[in-house]
Design a protein that fits this description.
2 domains, three-stranded antiparallel beta sheet, two-stranded antiparallel ribbon, rod-shaped
């Protein structure tokens, strides 16, 4: 039984839904609605027409392929004698140093 907000009549009908979920994400859903006449014997509003809906769906596990960009990085650790932020001829490389970024050892 149902009643709309804009009418004073009470309508009734039959409806339901059947769901099936099989192996490997295969699904079937069958829904139906069969409105009947209202209790006063009038006709059913046009918005409450008979309806049947069948939905079949299948999920596919398809990997998303994308191209990864790899980059090389070369790090030179040096003693900046004149503190200009540039590696000059007189600056010397620091050997046997270890650089750690976010817990990952990059150079040993």
């Amino acid at each position: 039984m149902f009643k709309t907000l804009y009418e004073d009549k009470v309508n009734y009908g039959v409806g339901g839904s059947l769901n099936y979920r099989g192996r490997s994400d295969f699904m079937v859903n069958l829904s139906a609605n069969l409105p009947l006449t209202n209790m006063e014997g009038g006709i059913v509003p046009i918005a409450n027409q008979k309806s049947i809906m069948l939905t079949i769906s299948k999920s596919f596990n398809v990997p998303v392929l994308y191209k990864r960009n790899y980059h090389d990085m070369k790090v030179l650790l040096y003693h900046d004698i004149n503190s200009n932020g540039l590696m000059d001829v007189e600056d010397t490389l620091i050997k046997k140093a270890m650089l750690t970024v976010k817990g990952l050892n990059l150079i040993e």
